[in-house]
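Hello forum,

I keep getting stuck at the same step: I have a sequence, I want structure tokens, and every attempt I make locally crashes halfway through. Rather than fight my setup again tonight, could one of you with a working pipeline run this one for me? It's a single chain of 405 residues.
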Amino acid sequence: MTLFWVASAILILLSSVLIAIPIIRKKANTDDVLRDELNKALYKDRVSELAEETRSGIVDDQQELVNDLKLSLLDDVPNHQSSKARRSITPLAVLLPSIVFVIALSYGMYFKFGASGKVEEWQQVSANLPELSKKLLVPEGAVLSDDEMRDLTLALRTRLYYHPDDSTGWLLLGRIALANRDVITAIGAMKKAYKLKPDDDDVKLGYAQALMLSQEELDQTVARRILGQLVQNDYVDLRVFSLLAFDAYERADYTAAIRYWKVMQRMIGPEDGRYSMLVQSIDNAQQQLATSTASDKSVSVTIAVSDQVNIEPNSALIVSVHSADGSPMPVAAARYPLGSFPRTVVLDDTNSMLQDRKLSSLESLLVRVRLDKDGNVATKQEDWFGESEVVKMGQPVSVTIDRQY
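Reply #2:
Ran it on my machine without issues. Output:
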């Protein structure tokens, strides 16, 4: 607030100077003097004209007309008393009330419409940013109230306005948005943090969490790639495997979901209260997997990778089902994060490419698997792939990735 008072005082001082200049520099009112001079000049001119008219015989009594002219001039003499009264008002008598009025009006309008209370509250919230941030950064930490979350958001936005290169600030803002399910803000904040520190594992995890909430398939693909990098970097965080498990389950990749949940079980141990919840999740996924595998309308594909294959960490796994004649156009296809091998995926009618041609309509089929290194399905250069033998619908399929385009 000190800065505000200094700035407002300077502005009022400048306003006062602008008011004072014309008042101080105001010249004495010379209208009366000018009128006297003008009347004298007119009188002399008229007297000269009367003399000329008398010589010409136009005027008979020049003196009478001169007397009338003098009377007229006398009637136009200014009231010196009123002029003196006007001159008795000093510039200071006008200047001081004007300055007082400007000060009263300025501060009165500010206190009425300037939201000074909210400004003070905003500054107090900004000053509490370190304390609020500590609460949010504590793992399994203290739960912030709605008011504290709102204050922390305001303080962070203020700080980030003046310090846009603060990656920690963007990370905190993204976490708050995640807690409030504000997907757009979360993705935007986490993306800024990721650009500032692309190698920070905590930032990577936050960015992946935000992208997983997006409805865009491209965002979710990027999230899977980032999570795959974290797993390969041995970044041990329960949330990484939880996100991967949930994503795999949503995509009906029940084998991968079970594998990730079992990793989480080993990380927390049986004594943890969440262990029983993981057991339920695994049981549910195993039931779904058994149902899918038992159905003659789905294709279960077990994928292995040859030792000669050099896997790029950013690669994506693309599995496609084709008719037995080897047509390049797949009947069904699915895209998965890289994960680990060997692994099993299940494709069914939900993965069909065309509505009028379902996967379940095939009697025989073959499966092609590709490690797409650049994320573009249209390019195949240097991608590794494998192809199965022709099998009947409902039979398990095994594919080994061992060839390169």
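The longest strand covers residues 364-372. If your local run keeps crashing, start a new thread with the error log.
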